[in-house]
Write a structure and sequence with these properties.
The complex is a heterodimer of chains A (about 120) and B (about 150).
Chain A (H helix, E strand, L loop, with lengths): L1 H6 L1 H29 L12 H8 L2 H28 L6 H13 L1 H9 L2
Chain B lengths: L32 H32 L1 H10 L3 H25 L15 H23 L5
Helix pairs in contact in B: 1-2, 1-3, 3-4
The chains are: A mainly alpha (about 120), B mainly alpha (about 150).
């Protein structure tokens, strides 16, 4: 597992970097409106009624943004947690921990399915 | 005047094991301010991992139809979700300031054909893109534009 992770390192770092930069930029506005302002009643929930949300999300740009909002944070999160595990003397168990965390991140494939079926 | 001493004059009669202790990390290593910030930066990974799954849940519900979408969107009003999203927002700002403001200005190629830009210019550029994207997404999601 450890040698596989070493071979995949460039791809993992690419996805981690994209998650750190693009993921952060996309999530900020999303969390601000959908996660905080709308549930607290500061923004009218009708702005994201099903018809409008579906029309926004099913456009090509909408699908790309949604995929970015799902996949990039997952990869950033997985790689950062692996790095944190190594910092806490997890070098010996890195193969298992890293493998498990990236397996969770690979679930971003479900995100691709979710976006395609819109 | 005395002559030069023999270089081994003060050596013990028998060579002993070295008395240098192997390096050991102090038990309080994680409490140092710089390390604590670094570890917090890494710990935001769990927030990002969960945030990605929340968006996945919403998109999946959108694909399932109006009832599933309304239920998923309505569930975000639960206090636990609100606390999580407040924590996520703080994490995003922390990661953004650390990555865009501190790390990225130092990551410019030094051997390329162009001289590296001043750190303040890089910082300003990335912060502007971040602010513009956040504003644009906020206006779209709140129904102000499009």
């Amino acid at each position: 597992m450890k040698s596989l992770l070493l071979k995949l390192e460039p791809i993992i770092w690419l996805l981690f970097g994209a998650g750190l930069s693009i993921g952060t930029m996309l999530l900020t506005g999303f969390v601000l409106i959908v996660g905080l302002a709308m549930p607290m009643g500061l923004v009218d929930a009708g702005a994201l009624d099903y018809t409008r949300a579906y029309s926004l999300g099913s456009s090509l740009l909408g699908r790309l943004v949604l995929l970015g909002l799902i996949a990039l944070p997952l990869w950033k999160g997985a790689h950062h947690l692996r790095s944190l595990s190594i910092d806490f003397r997890g070098g010996d168990r890195d193969g298992i921990v890293g493998g498990l965390l990236y397996a969770v991140a690979v679930c971003s494939v479900i995100g691709i399915v979710a976006v395609i079926r819109l | 005047m005395a002559g030069a001493a023999h270089p081994e004059a003060m050596a013990p009669p028998k060579k002993g094991a070295t008395r240098t202790a192997p390096p050991r990390m102090p038990g309080s290593w994680w409490g140092a301010p710089r390390i604590r910030t670094y570890l917090l930066f890494g710990a935001t990974g769990i927030i990002y991992l969960l945030a990605g799954t929340v968006v996945l849940r919403l998109v999946w519900a959108l694909g399932n139809g109006p009832d599933a979408w309304d239920y998923a969107l309505g569930s975000l009003s639960h206090p636990l979700y609100l606390i999580f999203h407040a924590l996520t927002f703080v994490s995003l700002i922390f990661v953004g300031v650390r990555a865009f403001g501190t790390m990225m200005p130092k990551m410019q190629p030094r051997n390329g054909p162009f001289p590296p830009l001043p750190a303040a210019a890089v910082r300003g550029l990335i912060y502007s893109v971040w602010a513009l994207l956040t504003l644009l997404l906020s206006l779209v999601l709140s129904g102000k534009i499009f």
